[in-house]
Amino acid sequence: MRQRYACAYEEGPRPIPPTPPALRLARPVLAPATVRACAITQEPVLALTYDDGPDPATTIPVLDALARRHVRATFFVLAEQVLAHPGVLRRIVTDGHEVALHGFDHTRLTTLPFAQAIGSIRRARDIVEEVAQHRVRLFRPAYGAQTPQLAVATRALGLDVVLWSAWARDWTDEPTQVLLDRAIGAAHPGGIMLLHDASVGVSGYRGRGAVGEPGAGALPGAGALPGAGVEPGAGGEPGAGGATGVGGEPGASRVLPTFDRGALTGGLIDELRSRGYRFPTVSGLAQLAPVGRMVWFERAPA
CA-CA distances (angstroms) from residue 84 to 79, 95, 121, 207, 281? Predict the structure, then answer.
């Protein structure tokens, strides 16, 4: 599919454009470098996805809001955060949510040598699978940043890259209602909603440590990954301006968000449910409707 459909992140419901003949013919060649962006359907279904956790201070309110409404979501977790807060990841699993990978830390993989980037993905997946005791099959690179080579190599690792087609811009420090209105307006049938259950991608985040978390840092490979301990850069979230075909926000926020993430999740579900929406996981969405895929990679610096 063309990027302009999936990348209309705040447009809301829109007609599904036909696939151009050239893209249909090129599909076998392009497939290894494509990413999931949404589902092709007019049914009111929307996958809620959360990046950057787990963090007990902010993930738990999100989990509580989801549990009260019997909704399952997909959590793209960072292995560094999992090592610090394994108990929160175990609750994600116990609550029946889908666990996916966001990387080791929030380093932009396109700034690393190729072998180092792939090694980081592989070992981060191993850490998350060790704690979750579940196979991880989905990956969302930090900032959505990848090269064609990384895209193909990630698929070879057995990971399908998932981006998004709607967002709340919840990496900014705005009132909960402003973010809620934006997310509601962005929702569309078949959409994948980008949300965050932590603030690791925001410049200035330093984490909260592993106080009270049993077993933190006790897993193989802790602290030994490429990029381990590297602080996120000043680019903020989601850094989409450097990707092909995207005119998104540069995400240069340096102020940690203070809004209520649980209230944002609860309000979004309540309003969209009143409009007839259902909330499958990303994998569940793919079982309900054809997957919308697009070619996606970061432009080389000028």
Answer: 9, 20, 18, 9, 25
For residue 279, CA distances in Å to 92, 139, 185, 286 come to 16, 20, 16, 12
Q: Is 106 among the catalytic positions?
A: no
> Residue 248: which of 1, 3, 2 has the closest Cα?
3
What is the C-alpha separation between 121 and 101, in angstroms, rounded?
8
Q: Which two tokens stand for residue 243?
A: 């990707």
* pLDDT-derived band at 203, boundaries 50, 70, 90: low
Backbone angles phi, psi at 132, to 5 degrees: -75, -25
What pLDDT shows up at residue 137? Answer: 98
Torsion, Cα 199 63 192 154, to 10 degrees, reads 70
279: pLDDT strictly greater than 80: yes
250: amino acid identity, one letter: P
Query: Identity (one letter) of the amino acid at 86?
Result: P
* CA–CA separation, 12 and 289 (whole Å): 18
Q: Which candidate in 106, 160, 196, 260 is catalytic?
A: 196
What distance in Å separates the CA atoms of residue 17 and residue 205, rounded to the nearest whole number? 40
Q: Is the peptide bond before 257 cis (omega within 30 degrees of 0)?
A: no
What does DSSP assign to residue 212? T
Residue with tokens 């049914």, as numbered in its chain: 43
Model pTM score: 0.86
85 flagged as catalytic: no
Percent of the chain at pLDDT above 70?
A: 81
Confidence grade of residue 237 (pLDDT, cut at 50, 70, 90): low
Alpha helices, DSSP H, located in 157-260: 176-186
- Of 49, 147, 154, the closest CA to residue 103 belongs to 154
Q: Is the pLDDT of residue 119 over 90?
A: yes
Cα 83 to Cα 164: distance, rounded to the nearest angstrom: 26
**Integer angstrom CA distances of residue 96 from 56, 127, 163, 188, 281:** 18, 19, 21, 24, 10
Q: What are phi and psi of 268, to 5 degrees?
A: -65, -45
